[in-house]
Amino acid sequence: MNQPADDSDQPIDPRSARREKLAKIIEKGIDPWGSRFDDRLLIADAKARIDEVRFVKEDGTELELPDFDDESLDYRQWKSDNGPGGEQGPTVRVAGRIMLARPTGKLIFLNLKDWSGSIQIFVGKNQVGDEDFDLAKLFDLGDLIGAEGRLGRTNTGEITVFAEKLFFLTKMLEPPPEKHAGLTNVELRQRMRYADLAFNDGPMDTFLARTKIIKSIRQTLDEDGFCEVEGPTLHTVAGGAAARPFETHHNALDMKLTMRIALELHLKRLMVGGMERVYELGRVYRNEGLSPRHNPEFTMLEAYQAYGDYGSMMDLTERLICNAIEKIGGGFQREFAGQQIDFTPPFQRATYAELFQQATGVDPADDAAVLELSAKLGFESAGKHPDVIRSEIFEEKVEDSLRGPIFVIDYPASICPLTKRKRDNPEIAERFELFICGMELANAYTELNDPDLQEELFTTQLSGQEDEDSMAKMDHDFIRALRHAMPPAGGLGIGIDRLVMILTGQKSIRDVILFPVLRPES
Questions:
Q1: Distance, C-alpha 139 to centroid of its chain
Q2: Given this model, what pLDDT does residue 5 score?
Q3: DSSP state of 251
Q4: Which ranges carry the Aminoacyl-transfer RNA synthetases class-II family profile domain (predicted)?
Q5: Could you tell me if 299 and 448 lie in one domain?
Q6: Residue 1 lies in a domain
Q7: Cβ distance 437 to 403 under 8 Å?
Q8: Is 52 assigned a ligand-binding role in the annotation?
Q9: Exposure of 430 in the CB half-sphere (CA atoms within 13 A)
């Protein structure tokens, strides 16, 4: 397994050395790209069968193996004390990538890894025979192989497959990252996600946790009677959010289309049609900047419940997150961004106004005091609606202080054009945002279903918008749909990537997206 050297004793290029071994494998009549490998166990499942291993004395007496959680145990001494005899265990077949190789004369110890875990493979010349042992000498780090043999433990107590037969499954032609330096460059890890998953500890666990979180979300919604649908990703009018869309052109119809920036408006159309609990979990696209919290392509959940309100959505949000935590394990106390976050339900709830006053010392209803504070903070306020000024101050002075999880409820109505107003105070919208460590994770409304008011609010909001902004054009068909009667409802949006970030303790959204948007490779 050592790097070969040429006659001048100069190291051969590692890629050339690997191709030389590839040629020798082919000379042996072995397909270096492998074939079907039936009856293999995941390594985790194979290791779980260690309970079937018994120590059998010469007189046939079977002894259970000792508790290997006891670090003080000397397994070699235990066997000596109970010998003569030996282990008997099940025959297993495993496959994976070679992560470590230690050749010692007529023995080779391999560390084999699949997506469930890793295990040691004992390759002895006497056990596998000359042909397979010669094959093992052609193995390189990163190669995919299979092994069949008895499951047991070495004298140090390590769970091991004592190979009786080897199978070559695929040759790796590129050298792996250096053992100690590894694949540490962040951008390279994201660009070469395949190498990041294969050779770095952690990413596989993160992305498998992501899968569990998404499965849990779907299961919770399905159990609550929601129907999953698939809306269009190409829209004639970008709507449902204030964002800059990606634009494209449909040649056959000679028309401009945009990639969707939200899921909302088409899901509401379905509620008009009678689908009373509906959700979509899919990609949305916003032609905006990159940051640890933003990627132009990201995953959203939007769910709508007829005859509910934003209170219904708070209960649902809490249940979705808590169920996901239970699915991935680790408990409700979790670390994120250097802070311990307690997800034990119920989550805290506080109004926008009271949080504003606590953080600034200014009553948000006092327009003069808000203007004065805005000037002190260096914000431009000329020509802006007072609620827009309040929103800028809230983002600057309040959001970063919200450790959470906390539902911020009852926002100024003028900045919530898709939200129903409170009956006793039409200046307040029935909206919440869920914050954790200063980051918005979820947004929900009691949905506005008055078509005339919705058209009026859209018209007001559209005035003065830049042509490229998503809110610069009204979705007239959506207004027409509302005139066909959409039931009173609660609606919810959750950023799935941010949720995975928080629950897995990752610092950047690009660490929870398998293939994030990156600058062109230089």
A1: 33
A2: 43
A3: T
A4: 210-520
A5: yes
A6: no
A7: yes
A8: no
A9: 23
Please list the residues that pair with 97 across neighbouring strands.
Answer: 113, 144
Tokens of 94: 């495993």
pTM for this model (two decimals)? 0.90
**DSSP string of 178-234?**
PTTT-S--HHHHHHTHHHHHHHSSSHHHHHHHHHHHHHHHHHHHHHTT-EE----SE
| 8 A C-beta contact, residue 420 and residue 482 | no
- Counting the structural domains of the chain, the total is 2
In a domain, 237, yes or no: yes
Single out the residue of 96, 88, 122, 100 nearest to residue 43, CA to CA: 96
Tokens standing for residue 20: 């030389």
The C-alpha atoms of residue 75 and residue 153 are separated, in whole angstroms, by 9
CATH for 153: 2.40.50.140
Q: Provide the residue type at 391 as one letter.
A: S
Copy the structure tokens of residue 169: 């499954």
Assess whether 312 and 414 both reside in one domain: yes
| 255-259, strands of its sheet edge to edge | 234-235, 255-259, 247-250
Task: Give the model's pLDDT for residue 174.
Answer: 94
Same domain (yes/no): 155, 213? no
The reply, when asked if residue 158 is annotated as ligand binding, is no
**Angle at the Cα of 500 from the Cα atoms of 395 and 326, rounded to 5 degrees:** 120
Residue ending a domain, among 130, 159, 176, is 176
261 contacts: CB under 8 Å, gap ≥ 6: 238, 239, 240, 241, 243, 245, 284, 285, 286, 470
Please write down the long-range contacts of 328-334, taking CB distance under 8 Å and 24 or more positions apart: 328/209, 328/212, 328/213, 328/216, 328/503, 328/504, 334/502, 334/503, 334/505
Closest CA to 286 of 470, 20, 41: 470
Among candidate residues 193, 123, 159, 170, the one with its CA nearest the CA of residue 49: 159
339 and 263 fall within a common domain: yes
Answer yes or no: is 467 within a domain.
yes
Whether 472 maps to a domain, the answer reads yes
Question: Do 427 and 464 fall within a single domain?
Answer: yes
Do 252 and 126 share a structural domain? no
Query: Do 442 and 294 share a structural domain?
Result: yes
Say whether both 44 and 97 belong to one domain: yes
Q: Which domain holds residue 155?
A: 14-53+89-176
